[in-house]
Amino acid sequence: MTDLKDGYDVVVIGGGAAGLSGALMLARMRRSVVVIDAGQPRNAPAEGVHGLLARDGTPPGELLERGRAEVRGYGGHVVNGEVITVARDADGFAVCLGDRSVRARRLLVTTGLVDELPEIAGLRQRWGRDVIHCPYCHGWEARDQAIGVLGTGPMAVHQALLFRQLSADVTYFSHTMALTAEQSEELNARGIPVVRGAVTALEIVDDRLAGVRLSDGTVVPREVAVVGSRMVARANFLEALGLRPTQHPAGVGEYIPTDATGRTDVPGIWAAGNVTDMTAQVGAAAAAGAAAAAQINADFVAEETAEAVAGLRASFSAATEARLCEEVMGDRRHGI
Question: pTM value?
Answer without folding.
Answer: 0.91
